[in-house]
Structure to design on (228 residues):
């Protein structure tokens, strides 16, 4: 099956701990994204990557870090510097513009992070 | 001013009626427009995208875009209880910018 997988589905963290959220896709998409969603709010962009070994900060990158060593993988680390990390984290990927559906993004199932 | 605005709702419609969801955006240079459906506790699912002024139909869904007035709408015909969800509008502010800006979403409730 082609798609985007995120793990774990639920994650609990103690204050002061770093945690890493996994995102893998087998769609052969170049671009990948991380969003955070808080209750009653839209999605906010944390980081994005358009090619391997390159990534850019989104609107709320403080307290987060990413890597893009492989095309298929774009893990997100939530560091202890993130003041309010409890949220629903969504990973997305996007096909190249020539593939139709310009700028279209497809989402994984998400990881719900709770800080205890 | 928020870049993408939606009425939070909830919008309640009876089963079989037409649901009309609206979205306005602030960046006049926006090029791509999307509607996503999100069930409670789940991730967003793409319903439609539209790039040009006018209407685009896909089954029971019709997206309408008016760039001059900077709004995009989604019509759902013959609404079903399974359509009850939050509908997110998303916009690409720059041509081929690869970045989507999302509205906060409109909650739709279809009552049987």
């Amino acid at each position: 099956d082609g798609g985007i997988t995120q793990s774990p589905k639920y994650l609990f963290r103690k204050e002061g701990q770093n945690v890493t959220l996994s995102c893998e896709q087998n769609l052969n998409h170049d671009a990948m994204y991380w969003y955070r969603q808080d209750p009653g709010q839209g999605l906010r962009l944390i980081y994005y990557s358009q090619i391997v070994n390159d990534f850019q900060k989104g609107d709320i990158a403080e307290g987060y870090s990413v890597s893009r060593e492989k095309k298929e993988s774009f893990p997100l680390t939530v560091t202890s510097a993130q003041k309010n990390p409890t949220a629903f984290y969504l990973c997305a990927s996007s096909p190249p513009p020539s593939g139709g559906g310009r700028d279209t993004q497809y989402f994984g199932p998400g990881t719900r992070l709770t800080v205890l | 001013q928020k870049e993408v605005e939606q009425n939070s709702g909830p919008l309640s419609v009876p089963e079989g009626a037409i649901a009309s969801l609206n979205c306005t955006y602030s960046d006049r240079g926006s090029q791509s427009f999307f509607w996503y459906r999100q069930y409670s506790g789940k991730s967003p699912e793409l319903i439609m995208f539209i790039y040009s002024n006018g209407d685009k139909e896909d089954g029971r869904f019709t997206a309408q875009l008016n760039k001059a007035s900077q709004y995009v709408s989604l019509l759902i015909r013959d609404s079903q209880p399974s359509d009850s969800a939050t509908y997110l509008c998303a916009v690409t502010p720059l041509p081929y910018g690869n970045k989507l800006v999302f509205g906060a979403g409109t909650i739709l409730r279809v009552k049987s």
